Amino acid sequence: MKITIAGTGYVGIVTGACMAETGHAVTCYDIDSIRIKKLQDCIMPIFEPGLEEMLIRNRERISFTTDYKEAYRDSEAVIICVGTPEKRDGSANLKCVYAAVQQAVECAQRDCIIVIKSTVPVGTGDNLDKAVRLKNTGRHFEIANNPEFLSQGTAVRDTMKASRIVIGVNSPEAEKVLKDIYDRLGQEYVVTDRRSAEMIKYASNDFLALKISYINEIANLCDFIGADVEDVALGMGLDPRIGNRFLKAGIGYGGSCFPKDTKALHWLANFNDCELKTIKAAIDVNENQKIKLIKKARKYYDSFRDLTVAILGLTFKPGTDDFREAPSLQNIPILLEDGAKIKAWDPVGMDNFKKAYPEEISYCGSIEEALKDADICFILTEWPEIVLMDVSRFQLLMRKPIVLDGRNCFKLEEAEGNGFIYESIGRRIIGQGSIAGEHLLRGERAV
């Protein structure tokens, strides 16, 4: 089938590559000429394991263009993968979605299905369908919703071996075409109407965000009462009704999906006079959790002025160069404003981060370089290079070895007896007495 992908962002590139892998003839369109030139030269504008190899393998079946007329002319299916950024009020900006659909309708020379893969508010597909029908082009267009459930770092696998393929359609014809597109993947279909498919996307992401915020609140309580959140999460996760995924305590979620989608669903609920208290709580907990290490650091230093702070990890998670909504974006401005000198390391995210902070930060080529003569270390991303490092390096390299681990990278037994203070999330402090004892000394109550 001839398929056009509108938008070569994260979702668009992965979707296009996987469609080509399954035998379709794919054209990817974007207005960003620099990005398209890179893709034409097989240079990846994003970091995603396995993606570059897949594109190279399918060069004969996938092309890239900035000419929208060329892109849409012969398409049998158009998959919309453009961004829906958050507005100030939390709602989704659909300008690019409507523009892409309009271009497709104007340029397509045959009957065509337009598949919305971008995350859009419930009812968007119906509104697009009405707008398309008013065009009177003489060609038949179907509007469908087909949400993506990709995780950065595993996106290729998540597409090729999807847990489910959600098809939101309002006609048997649209259902058949979408099943033809995905037939070679052999995965389970969930066939529903457009509105329900749009809701499935938001409900799925927001539930995972809730789960993360819940375990982080439990971790914060564990800090005070002396329980270990890792053991708590293990005991909870073995219950099949709960499951162990997304029960990893830390300093909050980030990225392009969870923060945006929780706010968008909360806005949608308020717009319809329906209060979603749990979603609002998840958002609030997450924002506070992102600066948890700053609060922990204040126990050791009233001010960060003239201190050297090592930052290990800039991206919102390992396996990606994406730092959108990452905790680094909350912590670094606070540290800089307070006069800290920052040395940062990230295996793939530094080039992107330099665009936001080109001069204020010293970017280091290794973990050791970042730790050298640092007064305190913030671990913000659980990169394998950090998890597997020899923890004795902290004491050997740092001036004052205080390590604040926002991702619980190390077992407590590893940190013990190595001559440095180690604070993580929801676990006892190493190198400085018991959790309960510390809080009692500061006039706080443990039970």
TrEMBL record:
Gene Ontology MF, one: NAD binding
Catalytic activity, EC: 1.1.1.22
Residues forming the catalytic site: C257 (nucleophile)
Top class in the EC scheme: oxidoreductase
Pathway recorded for this protein: Nucleotide-sugar biosynthesis; UDP-alpha-D-glucuronate biosynthesis; UDP-alpha-D-glucuronate from UDP-alpha-D-glucose: step 1/1
Keyword Oxidoreductase among UniProt keywords: yes
Domain spans labelled UDP-glucose/GDP-mannose dehydrogenase C-terminal: 310-412
SUPFAM superfamilies, sorted: 6-phosphogluconate dehydrogenase C-terminal domain-like (SSF48179), NAD(P)-binding Rossmann-fold domains (SSF51735), UDP-glucose/GDP-mannose dehydrogenase C-terminal domain (SSF52413)
Signal peptide: none
Highest taxon above the source species: Bacteria
The entry's keywords: NAD, Oxidoreductase
Amino acids binding substrate: K201, F246, L247, K248, A249, G250, G254, K317
Reaction(s) catalysed by this chain's protein: UDP-alpha-D-glucose + 2 NAD(+) + H2O = UDP-alpha-D-glucuronate + 2 NADH + 3 H(+)
GO BP annotations, alphabetical order: polysaccharide biosynthetic process; UDP-glucuronate biosynthetic process
Keyword NAD (UniProt): yes
Family of the protein in this entry: Belongs to the UDP-glucose/GDP-mannose dehydrogenase family.
Database matches in NCBIfam families: NDP-sugDHase
Entry protein name: UDP-glucose 6-dehydrogenase
Species this chain originates from: Ruminiclostridium sufflavum DSM 19573
Organism phylogeny: Bacteria, Bacillati, Bacillota, Clostridia, Eubacteriales
